[in-house]
Amino acid sequence: MSLLIPELLMPRTCRPAILVVCALLIARSLAASPLSEDLTSRRAKLLDRLGPETMAILLSAPARVYSGDVDYEYRQDSNLYYLTGVTQEDTILVLMPGNVSRREVLFIKDRNPEREHWTGHLLSRDEARERTGITTVLPTSAFDAFLGAVLSREGYGSQFDGKEIAAFASALEGGRAKLALVMDAADAGDPPTRTQQLLQRLRDRYVGYVPVDIAPTLKTFRMVKTPYELEMLTRATDISAEAQMAGMRAAAPGAFEYQVKAAIEAVHRARGAVSWAYPSIVGSGPNATILHYPEADRQMQAGELLLVDAAANYGYQASDITRTYPVSGRFSDVQRDIYDLVLHAQEEAIKIATPGATLAAIHNRTVDVLKEGLLKLGLITDTSGQQYAMWFTHGTSHFIGIDVHDVGGRNDVLVPGMTFTIEPGVYIRQSVIDNLPKTPANLDLIGKIQAAVTKYADVGVRIEDSFVMEADGVRNLSVAVPKSIKDIEAFMRTGRTSGGAR
């Protein structure tokens, strides 16, 4: 936007000061935002990795129908967001590292004032340039023509003439070109994904290229968080920690699980996290033994535990925190037995979380600790096999980031900048042994552990924190949430009287 200064209306002595102010305003308007700078850096790394004979195409996620003409809240494809920061549908990113100058092309949905009246503002091309740092922005309606022209080696308009795309066109002619896409697969019975549909269309019409999967490369980049991403994740975790404590204040005998859930998610919204990282899990009594209990409709009873697995998404970074605490404010001896074991397992697992370790090693240490503890409690009879898996039924850790279960596997080596959870749990359900095959060995096992199962029945405990790996070791991002029995009981005793979310 031009800023015209009516000089004739100003005293001559004022003009230099006004010009300085205007220069500062213009410089500020042209300066890239921290997100834009980070996105540009991410794409630059990918462009360098792809090579000049590759064209990468990343597609936005489709809108999903909730019911009738009502959609779910839109969630962008994680890889496309990682490279563009654009959160609206019908967005496409094309990267052509071999081009002379226009190596990045963003396609965004055509603006439609009538549609925007119903569903909200769509990015203009200038807004998209400012947000993403991508100079060349075209309407999504032009994508098919653009792609067809490039794959035909004809060029597309004056911006992408034969000289501009010469490297990729030469690779196409020689059969060396690579078309890099995220090779997602549809679930059985589902229609083909957008990427699969695109590949099928191209396969029938163009030659000279080989499809390659860009997902492993993006995984490598996404696993190590940038300083900007760590700032967003730290903010998400701070909000999540405050929300967890608001939930603790709301828990009381006679209250309902959904009241705790509402208290938590109100803090998310109030602190600027416009969505949760995943649907909040709030389970009391026997519901605490259901890993992903969804309903949150039970009335809490005195003497029960409440398991709360809930966290916020801020800036497309998902935190993950779980706490388990007594509805009445004090742990019973039976609850203490299980809680102490789970907390000890987490503490021992944290010691393993050092640069060079893996999530598999963290899990293995957790299992070893839980086996010994479950044996002492009479819940298993043997630590050499898989009996522990009756009561600990999930992995100890997963990576977090744009997705709450982010890219990365259990055998990836931990390096500074990686973010992940450590979340041991023990869940005692009578139905577990009731449903064991009635073999002689199982009947013998049941006979030996039934008394302990009865003693600890319906006790479910999970303790989870979000961590970032640093050069000198791991740092707990969610340390603010009370976790020891002493701290939880003190908070339940005094925190409830300190008011709502601050």
Structure, briefly:
This protein has about 500 residues and is an alpha+beta fold. It contains 16 helices and 19 strands. The longest helix is centred in the middle third of the chain and has 24 residues.
What would you say this structure looks like, in words?
The structure is a single chain. The chain is an alpha+beta fold. The chain has 2 domains: 32-221, Creatine Amidinohydrolase, Chain A, domain 1 (3-Layer(aba) Sandwich), CATH 3.40.350; 224-497, Alpha-Beta Complex (Creatine Amidinohydrolase). Helix content is 40%, strand content 15%. Strands 6-5-4-1-7-8 form a 6-stranded mixed beta sheet, sandwiched between helices. The longest helix has 24 residues, at 227-250. The radius of gyration is 28 Å and the shape is elongated. Mean pLDDT is 92; it is low at 1-14 and 16-30.
Overall mean pLDDT stands at 92
- Into which percent range does the helicity of residues fall? 25-40%
| Radius of gyration over all CA atoms, rounded | 28 Å
Low-confidence stretches: 1-14, 16-30
| CATH topology (level 3) name of the largest domain | Creatine Amidinohydrolase
Strand content: 5-15%
* CATH level 1 class label of the largest domain: Alpha Beta
Structural class: alpha+beta
Q: Domain count, please report it.
A: 2
Span from first to last CA?
40 Å
- Principal-axis shape equals elongated
**CATH homology-level superfamily of the largest domain:** Creatinase/methionine aminopeptidase superfamily
What summary fits the major beta sheet? Answer: 6 strands, mixed
Q: Which CATH architecture of the largest domain is right?
A: Alpha-Beta Complex
* Strand order in the sheet with the most strands: 6-5-4-1-7-8
Number of strands: 19
